[in-house]
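Journal club side-thread
Mid-discussion, someone asked how the predicted structure for our own chain would compare to the paper's figures. Pasting it here so we can look after the session.
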Amino acid sequence: KEDEGKKRREKDEMKDKSYGSKKNKKEQRESDKKFDEKEGGESEGHKDSAVGKESEKRESSKRKEEEKESGQKKEEREKEDKDDEIKKDKEKEGEEKEDKGEDEKGESEKREEGEKKEEEKKEEEEKKEEQKKEEEGKKEEAKKEEEKEEEKKEEQKKEEEEQKEEVTYDPKELKFTLAGGSVKFTTKNGTGKRQALKIKCSDNFLYRVNPVFSFVEPGAEQTIEVIRQSGNPKIDKLVLIHTPVR
């Protein structure tokens, strides 16, 4: 029984030892796990902190880039807005200039039309004046022609009257042959007074006149003979001079 008791004790001790060793192992394992967990946590913490810093850097860089992009976009928008405003201002100025130009063109066109109308009126007035002048000139010419005709008629009448009152002779020309000869012409006193006659010749050596002097009563006639000697043919003149006498 004592041996069995010893054996049991030994077994129990062995069990206790094994159990203690098991406990120790478990505790060691748990401590190892805890240590590992701590180390892992610390490493993860370090890793997380590094990752966080990198992410923060990335986020800050992204933010900066976004801010830059947004600033650039704002600047571009502002530039576009300014360009649009400038374009609008230019368009407005162009429209105003066009309106002004159209107004000026309209005014210039109106002025030109007014000037053209005035010129046309002036031309029409000038044409009318010219027509009037032409008509007046034609009338004056017609009057002058009428006056000339009247003057001619009066002159003819005067000539006829003078011829009636003058001393006339007939024929007007005397013709001779180369051998010479005698030709007569007749004078007539158409005046109401007694006339004294005288005959003059351009060549007294070639011609003889009979009578050279004579008197003719009013309404009477006188025959005068002209004798030419033989000679070369030529043109000579006889002049009949008369004057009234008592």
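Post-session note: The helical segments are 2-165.
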